Amino acid sequence: MGTDTMTEARPTTMSLEEPGGDLWALNFGPQHPATHTTLRLVLELDGERVVACTPHIGYLHSGFEKLGEHLTYNQYVVVTDRMNYISPMANNIAWHHACEVLFNIELTPRCKVLRTILAELARIQDHLLCVGCTALDLGGFTAFLYGFADREDIYDLCEDICGARFTTSYTRVGGLMNDMPDGWPEKVKAFCRKLPKTLDDIVALLNRNRIFIERTKGIGYINHDDAINWGLTGPLARASGVRRDLRKDEPYLCYADNWDGSGSSGVDFKVPISHGGDVLARYLVRLEEMHQSLAIIAQLIDNIPAGPVNVLADDKQTLPDKREVYTSIEGLIHHFEQVMTNRGHTPPIGEAYGANETASGELGFYLVSDGGIMPYRVHCRAPSFINYQCFPKLVEGHQLSDVVAILGSLNIIAGELDR
Amino acid sequence: MDQNIAQIVAGLRTAFPDVAFSPQPLIDRSEDDAGAEQVFVRVPPDKIVEVMRFLHDDARCDFQQLASLTCVDYLDFPKARDRYAVVYTLVSPRLNHRMWVKCFVNDPDPAVPSVTGIWNAAEWTEREVFDLFGIRFSDHPDLRRIMTWDGFKAHPLRKDYPLRGHGEREDFTVVTDDSR
Questions:
Q1: pLDDT digits (tens, 9 = 90+) for A304-313
Q2: What is the dihedral of CA B139, A39, B91, B113, to 10 degrees?
Q3: Topology of domain A64-418, per CATH?
Q4: Does A58 sit within 8 Å of B149, measured CB to CB?
Q5: Helix, strand, coil % over all residues of chain A, rounded to 5
Q6: How many inter-chain contacts (A to B, CB under 8 Å) are there?
Q7: What is the ipTM of this complex?
Q8: Which residues of chain B lie closer than 8 angstroms to A229, CB-CB?
Q9: pTM confidence score
Q10: How confident is the model at residue B80 (pLDDT cuts 50, 70, 90)?
């Protein structure tokens, strides 16, 4: 390649001959229970106080963006499951949202409602883990188990609708893999009745718990302007007083007005903002977001519009219904035309960016299409990656034991961090 | 083009009369979609810091956030003239608008001045582009590889890098009984 001169690597060493002399180095990770995922920190400590912190990432780098150039728009959804594996459904929806911006497809109302419900379930799924882990990292095991028990129910709901608990791959360009099964809304409603009890239990355990408050208040502070400048989005930004939520600011799915084409207004919900900017504020924002997600689901679950989940098969933009494929010659031809490598549906030549508000922030995909059946380039704007950069700034000056509290509050998922 | 973005482009043209920004939608669509267009402007590498500083500071632009920074290698893209484009996605949380800036560079030494002085968010994203595309960001405070390891030689997201790699997997030293 002739580019050797450009890759002159600087070794990742750490000088211990700083003035002051008494610093010691601690290697934290890459495998450590409190990192939750695979990442490594090199901490320079003065006693127990963090003087400097150098994060090293890339342990889970799997070339997801390169893979995107070799998979079709429908196949790549499988890779997105593996990005933020705490809420895979949200990644599926974000990926195909970006594809639909590129293809310029308007979804059917039924598909929009199902995707919105699933996106909110995924948000709850993610926040339950993160809120639980905030407590777990500080020694409060019970709240974590309460959160995890309810995550199981969301896995069950995913299994019911798409057959997989974890690697859901449920969305397709212009629609979904299949319609929801009979009785699914009742199961969602049963879960929605159960969750507030769990949230109350977590609140009862933590919100007035003196140890929890002392360990989180004023820890890992970042102010409003810095939060924007460091690129923070999602609950992290909102905990620093940034009034931004893509569901309100760049509405999509059922968050937008007139989503069903007959003038319905978007779902009604509030965006919680805190001005604390610390670990406690992030915890409180996430807690309230779960209540708001429940409110969104409650508005939609009884009024799922009838009709197809995929945009019209006549447009030849989406895969046909499987029953059509197995029982009619037209369906079979249509299916083959979609999946054959020399046919397929092709987007226009150009570029597009589509972003969703997921549990950890703005998850966007920047797509470049050369008119072929596979993207020319896929860039994933991963919230974990962008959010993690400010970590050294957040921990410096704090105690070693606060490092795990701050790390947990950022909700870094290494699959998405390293891609 | 959206009203806000049209104003921003007009402001840019007044401030930098010698730069042809040639604003363009990311994708060409029919006329009736014009309001929903995603628009990018072209900025040459030697002007990028000045222009970005203007976009960040000017009250009508107010791009306080660098939402993402990436690169596209246009090696076999139809009708492409330049090889690499560094793509900046700018967001104004206050005014709620979004714009893209592309900075085209070419071999043999693709280099772009760093915007880390304006947005801290550029720090790791520029390192990622340096690692995976080999674009050098001058004035970057800590330009090291971030995804691959320090001894890695290639830039895997370039179009001339094969999906299966250049044999990095196969060339690992294997520990056998003899070599111990």
A1: 888 888 776 5
A2: 10
A3: Cytochrome-c3 Hydrogenase; chain B (1.10.645)
A4: yes
A5: 50, 10, 40
A6: 140
A7: 0.89
A8: 64-65, 119-121
A9: 0.87
A10: confident
